[in-house]
Amino acid sequence: MRIISAKDYQDVSRKAANIIASQVILKPNCVLGLATGSSPVGTYQQLIAKYEAGELDFSQVRTVNLDEYVGLTADHDQSYAYFMRHNLFDHVNIDQANTNIPCGVEPDAEKECARYDAVIESMGGVDLQLLGLGPNGHIGFNEPCDEFVPGTHRVELTEATINANARFFESMDDVPRFAYTMGIRGIMQADKVLMVVNGANKAQAVKDCFFGSVTPQAPGSILQLHKNFTLVADEAALSLVKDLL
Ligand code: GLP
What we know:
Distance between the termini: 12 Å
Strand order of the largest sheet: 1-10-9-6-2-3-5
Oligomer: single chain
Largest sheet: 7 strands, parallel
Radius of gyration: 17 Å
Number of strands: 10
Bound molecules: 2-amino-2-deoxy-6-O-phosphono-alpha-D-glucopyranose
Number of helices: 7
Shape: globular
Helix content: 25-40%
Strand content: 15-25%
């Protein structure tokens, strides 16, 4: 585990984008595992800027996203499919046929999860997986629970996550209660994992996940066992562990 301390959100985003850019330069047809949430937005903005400056070519890049809300169509403005188009795909020269996100409106969970695991496998695995961290330590939508779930699965969101994500919806009732998420195996099998974290509201999750025991109650803690895991976090997110660095 490598921890890179950044000054603030801008600095986190710049550092993370540089790491992703080097992946794309080294392997133009790489598979990027992508994340949603507010944490990676700045990273995506930096990648778009690099593309616009002629420094990056996404034409051969393939992507696989972590998760999607159950019940939202790809056109819904809070779906993760919409998020990815709006925050990255529409602004770079990626072939959108090479981008993958679980289908939120497939009602047969078993079928959709099996399909998505097959997609990940058919791509030959993920070269670099980008992650955010939920305030309760979740990664993707792998919520705190009694055991790590390996494959893509349908998950019931915890109250904490519903509350944390409510800010993006008009009312509490509009927040989806279920999601499809890549499982822990999909994340751990990536060659490299890069997590971006900022803000004091993540400080406890950072401490629990990376300075405590490996436990499914703090899902991000599994990354302590990953062979090539890099955490880029700002000073606020590292505030509870600064004496341990
Ligand atoms: C959602 C996503 C996660 C993300 C988390 C944190 O629950 N499924 O992938 O890491 O939110 O979001 P934010 O970055 O907005 O704090």
